[in-house]
Amino acid sequence: MFLDYITNIGLLPNNTETNILKDYPYVVKKILVQQVSSFLREPTTPTNFISSAAHLKWAMETCGQGFCLPIDDEPIINGVIELYRKWALDPINRPPVVEEKGLTQCFMQDILRHFSLIFSSRATNNIQLDKHTNLCIKVLDTYLEFGRHNWKFMSLETWEVFLKLMLGIADMLLSPISSEDTLGKRISYPLLKVLFELWIHSRTRNPSLWTAAKNFVSNWFHHEKVIDQWNATTYALTARMLTLLFNNTEKEGSAGSLVISRDDTQIIKMEADFVYYSYYRFLYLIGNPNRLQSPNIFLTAFQGVEKLVQIHLSAGTGDKSRVMPTDGNTILHIYGHWLFQAIYQDKAGFEEGTALAVKILCNIFCSRPKSKFLPGYLSSFCNCMNEALRKDGRLLYSAIINCQELYTHEIEGTRVLLPSFVYAIGRILQKKVQNYDFIESEAVIRRACIKIFNAIFSFPNHFNNTAFQLKITTKSLTQTPLEVENYIQLKQHLSNILIDALKNETSSGNVQLIISTAFAFLCENIQDGSEFAKQVIFLVVRQITTLGWSIEVCITALRVLGMIVGLYKELDGANEQAHFITQSLSKFLASQYEKIDGEIKDKDLENLLSETLYCIGSWVLVETQWILKDRELIDCLVNAIVVAISGKEQKEDESKSTIKGKKLIPKKKILLSEKVREAADYLLFSILNLFGNFPTSVGPSRVSSLLTEEELLQDTLHKSNGKCAVRNTIRYFFVGNSTIISVLDRPYEEGGAGATIIVRDKNGKFAWNTRMSYLPLKLQNVGPLPIVKEDTCISTEPFANTSPEIKTGALADVLSFLDKKKPSLIISNTAKFTETEKTALVKNKFGLNTDIAVSPPAVINAYTGINLLQQSRMFMAHVGFLALENRDRVLLVEQNEKFLKSLQMLDGHSERECHKIGVLYAAKGQTNESEFFSNIGGPPDYQEFVSSLGWGIDLKTHTGFTGQLEKNVSEIAPYHSNPRTEMIFHVATLIPNCGDDNANKKRIVYNNVMVVWAEDLESFKPNFKNTRLYVYIVINPLDSLLYRIRLFQRHENQMGQFGPLTEGMVVSKGVLGRLVRETSIMAFRTVQIMTVAATKLREKVIEDIITTCKKDPAQHPGDVLARSSYGIFGVLPSTESVPLPSATRPNRSLVRQASYLGHSSSSPLSSTSPFSSLTNSPAPSPLAQAHSFSPSGPSFSNSTSSSPTVSTHSASPTPTSGFTRSGHSIRPQPSSHVQPVPPPRAVSTRKDPSPTTRNDTTTTTTTTHSNITTKSSVSSEETPLSPKGNPSDGADDKKEFSGFGKVVPSAARAMGNMLGQSRQNQTQSVSLGGSRSKEAPVTSESAEAPGSFGFTRDRVVPSAYKAATPYGTLRPSRPNRPAPP
Questions:
Q1: pTM (two decimals)
Q2: Closest by alpha carbon to 532, among 566, 565, 585, 493?
Q3: Which of 417, 723, 776, 1220 is least buried, going by the fewest C-beta atoms within 10 A?
């Protein structure tokens, strides 16, 4: 007894001996069913009451009629269901006769058959339908529990009866097509759930039964629940099958768990062999989904297929997988026919399902790029994609969204679709698509187009004239969408698409992506001219100045504009572009200033204005100095800088200022913001200091000087042979609240005494060499002229009268006459006196050897006194530092140890942005960081990439930023710098391995931004365990010799977007290094957006130094001259400190760097390193290249040629090493020679040189002063003046320099060694150091007048030295106290 419908469809035959109460009246059946079922359910009724098979059959025939009662008899029906449920699920409650007579299988079959009667439709209204539904669900639950608990005990026959009953019930309820609310619609989900689960529990392998199921199921396709249940069941079977295949850890023959998840989870124990069998049977149970006639059900079916494909794609990718992942061809063998047919058919109304088929197909190909797809599948895929790309709406958008990575995987044969993709993305980005039936938002679709563009824009240059050989043909297409024959012809199309996208895009995120893409495209095609660049610059500048984009996008655009400066030399009309950008942005700043009426509180606007100033600075600093031609632009730019730094005037309130009798409110300055001021300071510094001066003469690694006071003092001490009191040659001053200057006198410089001025401010440290110059160039070597031009013979005899002789005869008369007039004594005395005079005149040669010609005064020795700040004092006076009006701006420094340490700390802070980027090489097959860090060298393309990141620097001699990469760790590293930034790349393959774990190497290489060269992208997994690491820029070399980019971020949603490299971009080797470098800088700035700017940090340190080390004005009352008198005119008190010279050098010292310039690397590099070959090139001395300002003073030079009146040369450090490209590698060029430090001079040990005889050699120098030239000579064996400023005894003198390893002789002894006179040449000797000039012997004697005295402050020297010194008259010194010079 069961449903007649089941017999009618031929599933089960009808037994005529059953259903005996069928024709009985309703009342009889009702009473019988009610009474019998109630009695049998009574707990007091014994189970053995039914004692025979006949009794059992009668009872069941009676109770079974209850399932046929009307729905209104629901209580009776429920009673029968409870009775049958008790019998079916609990064998204890069954009549014993069932087991005794062996009727178990028949008994269970009868219960199942009788239960089927409840599903017969009989409800006439919704109330009855609700009751009927509940009754059917109770029976279905009983069916399911019965199958779950008894599947092991049921015979094959019982299972076949059960399954056929279920098929009949389902077909009866689900096959009719009706728009009304029916029982079948209401219970379709639980009915199908029970049917599918029972089918699995049955383990049936009866082909006829599976065939019947397939035939019946095809009649139910108009019910979406059928496809839903099929999706859930096939997914569970597929997942279980793939688990067994790829991650099987179960024992052979054991039953694993099959999990069917839908609204609830069903767990079924199933053996592996039946899993494989049932997977295939269930997969094709619904046949080809393309036969489905309902668009929604068609979509549902392909949603199930998508899940199946996805689980296939993920199989075998875990760590426990024993075999290779599923091959792409295998997946296409299973599902390909359905997918290809769905796209080919493209039925109207089925677009959503067809678009899903496109998505699934794209995922298969993009997820299995290494599979070698069969030609048939490749051909079908290309035809399907080409068809989709030609359409509008969902198919087109599905193809675009799901093919974003197609060209990053380089699947064989897919580049034939390139013209179709260009055509498709062009229509979307240029807004030529008419049908906007989006499966995603418009912004998402356009973003996908940009990503595809990023993957293909490098193809035209890379493949050049390679022709498109294949023609794609479908039923609707006979030629490619674009009329192009080769790759190079696509370039103009790509350029047009990018320009139109920049014009049309409205999404901020997409615009940022397009701007980054535009820069990368420009780098790739800059050799073709710069028309594209002009269009991009014009569009970007226009959008910025009109704020046509959001502020965030404008900031990105400004940064990209700054990057374009790097292509300045390749741009056509570069000066015009620079003028356009600078003028437009300057006017934009002015317009924004006008709108501001108070301090800027909008952080976005603040960032925009500061980035604008930085961008202007980049374009102003180009080497052509184009801005000098436009005075109006300069004025506009300067005004923008001034307002940004000093603020703008507050708008005047006219209502208050125009009324008579009221006091006018003065205008106030409104400071814009600190961040804008910093940017304006940088721009001003760039114009004043770097304009036309970057790179400097020492290269781009330095914009400020490394020269130190310690070096200069050491040099002075060396040139004076340790005799100079160097502590008195240096002073420090504060100028305002932002500048520290140190002044050092240099008495021993070649060419004459001078001074070095070292200036420190927030923008850096700058050293200038100064020297006074008095004469024009043409009069530099003019000396005094003799008044008598021709020699005149002068007799050495007394004057002789040439008149006639007086006759002696008359003499007697004269004498006689005189005797008469005067006594003869007078005559005799006169004769005697005359004779005496004659004798004296003869003896003295009548005084004719005396030179009575007038000579110019000798050049004064400025260093004879205790004060040694001579040149420095004059310099400060001349530039106005000592003027009375500056009394409160130029202040002395409290020179203590704290000040000197603070100064060293200040010098340690860079004046530019400094970035250190880690570079890692991951070879194929390597999966963990220990393997990555153990690599040394690398393949050629990797080494070429490393050499393109920057120029190589020798860490032994490099003077710029090193990022704590010491020379004992690595020898060479790539380095790059510009006026604003310095960056060094810590390349792991250039650092030797150390230890098994390379802990030190990891510490150095791990930085905020890491660049990873990954040969196998699938084996590389980003590891963000290191807390410093925020960004990975991963480079994956492709088989086509192009390079794919992947970006990984620690906080994807917090860091935002940075470029110019973007996720999935494919670029060529020629632009890879530049783009990685620029992206690293942008990423670094994004990571460190909250850090303090370099100049701001230096400014803060300077303010702290000035606050703590400024002289207290109360201790030095009066004006600046009075307060600083002892500092300018006196000696430095012993309580104050100077940076004493020592063997230890600062880390950034120029002397330390220069000491290595002439040497190559001592240890050989790896042969695989890009820097393995070193070549030599000359480099000047670091001291000779001082960043100096030199107003030439009295020149003491051996040169006979004229020198400029004012000579300026910078005291910046020497370029430590140059590097040249050889192929694609960069090799360092250590300097082959260095200007040698002057050798120590011989010092005379004579305490009192003889004043009479001097046979030692002399040095002749020329002194130019006040249009008079004199020659002087000094013994080459004697030390130049070594003045000592401390007016103490010799014991104090010795104590002062005891720290230098030698005792310096007293000042007087040093001066005594210097003094002497050459009467033969009648010249005066003086030398203030520097190179010795032409030597000449001195042999003449020296004479001195007794009793002569000379005065020199409070010291006296012997008068014997009077004629020898050209510095003034000296008097004899006191005994036992030798005087200083």
A1: 0.74
A2: 493
A3: 776
